[in-house]
Structures are given as structure tokens and as C-alpha cells.
Amino acid sequence: MRIVVLAGGIGGARFLRGLKSAAPAAEITVIGNTGDDIHLFGLKVCPDLDTVMYTLGGGINEDQGWGRADESFTLKEELAAYGVGPTWFGLGDRDFATHIVRTQMLAAGYPLSAVTEALCDRWQPGVRLLPMSDDRVETHVAVTENGERRVVHFQEYWVRLRASLAAEAVVPVGAEQAKPAPGVLEALASADVILLPPSNPVVSIGTILAVPGIREAVAGAAAPVVGLSPIVGGAPVRGMADKVLAAVGVESTAAAVARHYGADLLDGWLVDTADADAVAEVEAAGIACRAVPLMMTGTEATAAMAREALSLAEAAR
Ligand SMILES: O=c1nc2n(C[C@H](O)[C@H](O)[C@H](O)CO)c3cc(O)ccc3cc-2c(=O)[nH]1
């Protein structure tokens, strides 16, 4: 079975761990969000691709859900001693090595997709990890800080500001001109199932779908498309998705997120048992819906979620 998953960072990576356990024989292709990418200290950092790669490759810091296990921060401290920031973004020494290799290969002319494949040679994540695009896309967020309207990089909004200000607009800069990376459209066209994990619907999956051709390829694929709600009981399971949902005028409810994706895209939608009331509303919108436990408390609970998603896909076929 060929499964294609559109994934953001922590939520996507943890879902993939459960999916691999639920479907060990499946050929899994991951289309990763690169709108969170940021250039720091002359290096290209790809947080979502790295989070998937480290999580599935056994190198993640399990408590944080991002960055490397057994990490040290000597380089960051030395840079700060020179007054070189930003200091609000936690890049560790081991993680720095990944960004150095990536930046060196990009400078030598390799596209991001080839660089990602090379990095995965080390980590062996057990999935084919593709960036959504080889072209630069950068999510920016408009905020009003101290009475002044500014546009900040998504990481500055997420990490420095902790999404404490209202997101007035969320713009995937460069998405309109970007092309899907090699293999992305082919994987969607030949998929048996397409899954949208409980990743952020705006800045993770929304950014992937904003690359011209990807939304059309998902919607037009022969495979059933099933998503899992990142909203449980009216609040994000983790992260601050509600802040960016508000920016696109979407309520933080499981049913509103399903309607936001739309019946043209989704064949099936899983909501948490706490949101069983939403099932009728989602089905009325033309999307098959089931209420099942959606808390990713461990690999077994997450594998059960993945099995439910595959079962709903089978029913929606
Ligand atoms: O909350 C934080 N998240 C950090 N993240 C996570 C990241 O900001 C976001 O969670 C994702 O981009 C959202 O998908 C990092 C991810 C990396 O791959 C590398 C470094 C960081 C650093 C931070 C950090 O300092 N604080």
C-alpha cells in the first residue's frame, strides 16, 4: 500500500511514528512543509523536515518534540558572546551540523529535495521524505506590536512572541511562484491513501496546499483523502493553532477545520470522541466522519489513530 502524508513538524512526525507501526509494510511518502524554514547565521534551517527526520530516525529530543537528543549549546553561547543573535531560537550543536551540511550542499547546487534525501541517508527514517518544494517559501505573520504593525517570520511569531499577539494575516511568501518538488505530484497521483495528520491546518498543511498544483493533485487524486482533527474540544491538541486559524477566519472547532479543508479535498475526517457532536455537522458538509480517540499519548495510541484513518479511507473509497 502506498500512503502519502502531508506533514508539518511535531504533530506530523508523531503521527508518522504511529502510522509506521500500524502499517509496517506500507510505502510511505511524506510531503513536508518548508514554509517554517528560516535562514540563521548564514545557514538554512528546515524545522519541519528535520523534526520528521529526527523523530523517525531516533534522534529527536522526545520531551521538546524538536531538536536533537543529548544536545549542547556551546555554539549558540559563543555566537551570543559576540552579540550575534537571534538568541530566542534554540539551535544546538548537533543540530547545527545538519544545517551546515544542508547549506553546503545547497551552495554546491543541489536542490533541497536532493539534500533532504542525503540527510535521510544517515537517519533512515523509513519513509520517503520530500520537501513540498525546492523553491523558497517563507511564512510571514502580520502583527501589531507596541502599537506598530509589523510583519515577522513565522518562527519569530511562534518562538519569540509565543503567538501572544493576534495573527492579523498569515502569508506563505513565495508560495505562488513555487513548484512542487520532484516526486510530489507523482506520489499523490499513484497513492492508495492520502492522509492529513493532526498538523496545523494553516501554517503546516495549508502552506503545503498553497503550492500551486498540490491542492489540485490531492483533490483530484484517485486515492481517498482522510484527515485527523488537530482541534479537540475546541482547543488545539498542542501548539497554538487557534491563533493562526483566527487569522484565516476559521473557528477552532473540529468541524470548522474540516469545512475549511472542504469536501472537494477531504473524503473522510476523524474527530476526537470529545467532539462526537461534530460528526453530523461534518457529514452534512459531505465528508464521512467518525469520532475516535485522537490524543497521541504514545506510539500505540497513535497507531490506533492511524488504523482508524486507514479504515475510514477504505470505507470512503
Ligand atoms: O519553541 C521552540 N521551538 C523551536 N523549534 C520548533 C519550531 O519552531 C516549530 O515548532 C515548528 O517550526 C512548527 O512546526 C525548533 C525546531 C528546529 O528544527 C530547530 C530549532 C528550533 C528551536 C525552537 C525554539 O527555540 N523554541
From TrEMBL:
<dbReference type="Pfam" id="PF01933">
    <property type="entry name" value="CofD"/>
</dbReference>
<comment type="subunit">
    <text>Homodimer.</text>
</comment>
<dbReference type="InterPro" id="IPR038136">
    <property type="entry name" value="CofD-like_dom_sf"/>
</dbReference>
<comment type="similarity">
    <text>Belongs to the CofD family.</text>
</comment>
<keyword id="KW-0808">Transferase</keyword>
<dbReference type="InterPro" id="IPR010115">
    <property type="entry name" value="FbiA/CofD"/>
</dbReference>
<feature type="binding site">
    <location>
        <position position="50"/>
    </location>
    <ligand>
        <name>7,8-didemethyl-8-hydroxy-5-deazariboflavin</name>
    </ligand>
</feature>
<comment type="function">
    <text>Catalyzes the transfer of the phosphoenolpyruvate moiety from enoylpyruvoyl-2-diphospho-5'-guanosine (EPPG) to 7,8-didemethyl-8-hydroxy-5-deazariboflavin (FO) with the formation of dehydro coenzyme F420-0 and GMP.</text>
</comment>
<dbReference type="InterPro" id="IPR002882">
    <property type="entry name" value="CofD"/>
</dbReference>
<comment type="pathway">
    <text>Cofactor biosynthesis; coenzyme F420 biosynthesis.</text>
</comment>
<dbReference type="GO" id="GO:0043743">
    <property type="term" value="F:LPPG:FO 2-phospho-L-lactate transferase activity"/>
</dbReference>
<dbReference type="GO" id="GO:0000287">
    <property type="term" value="F:magnesium ion binding"/>
</dbReference>
<dbReference type="GO" id="GO:0052645">
    <property type="term" value="P:F420-0 metabolic process"/>
</dbReference>
<protein>
    <recommendedName>
        <fullName>Phosphoenolpyruvate transferase</fullName>
        <ecNumber>2.7.8.28</ecNumber>
    </recommendedName>
</protein>
<keyword id="KW-0460">Magnesium</keyword>
